[in-house]
Design goal:
This protein has 18 helices and 27 strands. It is an alpha+beta fold. The protein has one domain: FAD/NAD(P)-binding domain (3-Layer(bba) Sandwich). The longest helix has 20 residues.
Length: 637
């Protein structure tokens, strides 16, 4: 089997002269240089980014619409650490691709600062290529909060426009017993996706053990029901083993369009809002100001400015532009153009904890990825990976040929369960959870508690990871093999914030996810760890275990487990909610058309608009938001 490999044009980005002082119908604001989500060709999430490039290229398909994208990151294509899915975690410490920032001190998590890398390339390229869709219930609940028209039907219609589902080969289906339903995915869209066909050692035993606890095996994952255990789709072309993402799949095929200009190394400092607006009027943006090569320039927007800088950067750009809480902006000397105290608030983040087991590989014949700790073995695997990547980049055709070193194409097998399936303690804690007086939160909490009590709705995620998962204070022993079960808190009750400290965009904003502000979040993770321990005592999964390394047998009581979680909790980098799509009286920053309240022509298009987080990795939502807004804009035209 041979397939086409998309090659990047020799010149795909704009020059400064193509953009500065020019006027475009739409100006899309990309990532700030302290939080550009991942722009692999140019630098998820983005600026261009997952949502921004999706939106920009869809708009530019209409030759009468001109679009400029300002991306903070630099040109970074091709890059094996992005194209090869197995490399997704390798560059998290690389300052060229990801700045190593941390959160503010978390007073409910033992006063720790949690690592929270802010990417300079796309979220989808450096992050796992997870094309997992949320459950219908997680999106339909938004409409109960007043988001007009945003439900599963809207999401499903538009994520399908992004997808090009490629089914697994017949021999793979027969050999691995793969089940899937192609009708759950789109056909002919830019992003190639497939069902991963590399089965890792121990997955079958893990799935069978979960079945014993009443967790069903999903015959066809992909929504709208994701409750159960199964293998989910990935944004990897199964015919090449390489990652498919917004830059190589949306932008590159459209880079030739004269009405689409993408300027890299151009962090936006602020939106330009002329002083002619009166306090009674909705403000009108005339363009944006950006930095390039150490100098400041501007670009003009004839119709709209669309901020697609990601959850952690979009709100800070708005604040430096005078849109936000006057109590924060006025002391910094920033003229207030739109007073909205909710800008930068409602921050919600998935966080995680892990149980790590040493496994007996000799007795079971299972393999893990821990062998990559051996420099010689790792070097050989790296050589094999680079060889297949080089073949794909150098030839327009690539014969399908795989081995485990070519592409570790499965991130993990996933399990989504309702809280009641783990026990009732955390559900009861939800009913006792105190309500917050902050705007709109009481209604959100009531809906979250209803979700916790509904055993048809998934609330948490368990991820099978065949390696030693990095946990604070724990180190692997050389020569030992490990398996980790990582549990995710997908629907936190705690709410955080991110706000600027200065008008100077070089000074980082303060990100405070406020982890475990509400004790129920801590209890939910404790109950999840107890559920994993029960699974580890159940055949067939227990047959591979030598001992539990972390938390360890000395950690046995609920309070000891809670202390373990406080000491080791990590972030998934799935931040959402800082420019929530809600009615203004309920804490909203944007309306259902993603227009910022108090403005006529400024919109937001990224994960910051999510009002209430989902039990899913958010990549599919990032694409859907871009497709939805592009449709709205084209429709009004």
């Amino acid at each position: 089997m041979s397939v086409e490999i998309m090659q990047a044009p020799s010149k795909i980005t704009a020059n400064l002269e193509d953009v500065k002082h020019h006027e475009f119908d739409y100006v899309v604001v990309g990532k700030h240089h302290l939080e550009t989500l991942m722009f692999m060709f140019m630098s998820d999430v983005l600026g261009g980014g997952t949502t921004g490039l999706t939106l920009a290229t869809r708009l530019a398909e209409d030759a009468t619409i001109s679009v400029a994208v300002l991306e903070a990151g630099g040109l970074n294509f091709p890059h094996p650490s992005i194209d090869i899915p197995a490399q997704y975690g390798k560059e998290l410490g690389n300052p060229y691709l990801a700045f190593g920032h941390t959160t503010a001190t978390q007073k409910f998590a033992n006063n720790r600062s949690i690592p929270s890398p802010w990417y300079t390339v796309y979220l989808d390229p450096i992050a796992p290529p997870s094309q997992w869709k949320p459950s219908a219930s997680d999106i339909n609940i938004w409409s109960k909060l007043g988001t007009d028209g945003w439900d599963w039907t809207l999401f499903d219609e538009h994520i399908r426009k992004a997808e090009n589902f490629i089914p697994p080969a017949a021999d793979e289906v027969a050999e691995l017993g793969i089940t899937y339903d192609s009708s759950k995915y789109g056909q002919g869209g830019p992003i190639s996706i497939g069902i991963t066909t590399v089965e890792l050692s121990g997955e079958k035993q893990y799935r069978e053990t979960m079945n014993k606890f009443g967790v069903p095996t999903l015959e066809a994952a992909g929504g709208p029901d994701i409750l159960g255990t199964g293998v989910y789709a990935a944004s990897i072309n199964p015919q090449t083993g390489l990652r498919s993402y917004s830059a190589n799949s949306y932008f590159v095929p459209n880079a030739h369009r004269p009405n689409l200009k993408v300027l890299t190394n151009a962090p936006v400092t602020k939106i330009i809002i002329p002083a002619t607006n009166t306090p009674e009027d909705d403000v009108v943006a005339s363009g944006v100001e950006f930095e390039h090569g150490g100098d400041i320039y501007d670009v003009h927007a004839k119709k709209e400015v669309i901020v697609s800088a990601g959850t952690l950067a979009t709100s800070t750009i708005l604040e430096r532009s005078g849109i936000g809480n006057k109590e924060i902006l006025e002391p910094l000397g920033i003229p207030v153009k739109v007073h909205n105290p909710q800008v930068g608030e409602n921050l919600q983040e998935h966080c995680l904890a892990a149980v790590i087991h040493e496994i007996d590989a000799k007795a079971n014949g299972w393999e893990t990825l821990d062998g990559l700790a051996d420099p010689e073995y790792a070097a050989e695997q790296r050589r094999l990976q680079l060889s297949v990547w080089a073949r794909a980049r150098s030839s327009p055709q690539l014969d399908q040929q795989y081995n485990m070193a070519d592409t570790q194409r499965r991130h993990s097998i996933q399990v989504y369960v309702p809280c009641g399936q783990r026990g009732t303690k955390d559900c009861e804690a939800g009913e006792r959870s105190y309500f917050d007086t902050r705007t709109g939160l009481e209604e959100q909490y009531k809906l979250q508690i209803e979700s916790l009590k509904d055993n048809r709705v998934p609330d948490c995620e368990f991820s099978f990871a065949p390696f030693f998962f990095p946990v604070s204070g724990r180190t692997p022993e050389k020569g030992k093999l490990y398996n980790s079960i990582v549990t995710f808190l997908n629907k936190p009750f705690s709410r955080g914030s991110i706000h600027i400290q200065s008008e100077d965009d070089k000074i980082p904003a303060v990100m405070d996810p406020n982890i475990f502000e509400h004790d129920i979040d801590l209890q939910l993770l404790v109950e999840s760890l107890k559920f994993v321990r029960k699974a580890a005592e159940t055949a067939p999964y227990k047959e591979r275990i030598v001992k539990e390394l972390s938390p360890g047998p000395e950690v046995s009581t609920d309070e000891q487990l809670a202390e373990y979680v406080r000491s080791t909790v990590g972030s998934t980098w799935h931040a959402a909610g800082t420019c929530a799509m809600l009615p203004m009286e309920k804490g909203g920053v944007v309306d259902s058309n993603l227009r910022i309240y108090g403005t006529k022509n400024i919109r937001v298009a990224d994960l910051s608009i999510i009002p209430l987080h989902m039990a899913a990795h958010p990549q599919t939502m990032a694409y859907a938001i871009g497709e939805i807004l592009a449709g709205k804009i084209k429709g009004q035209k």
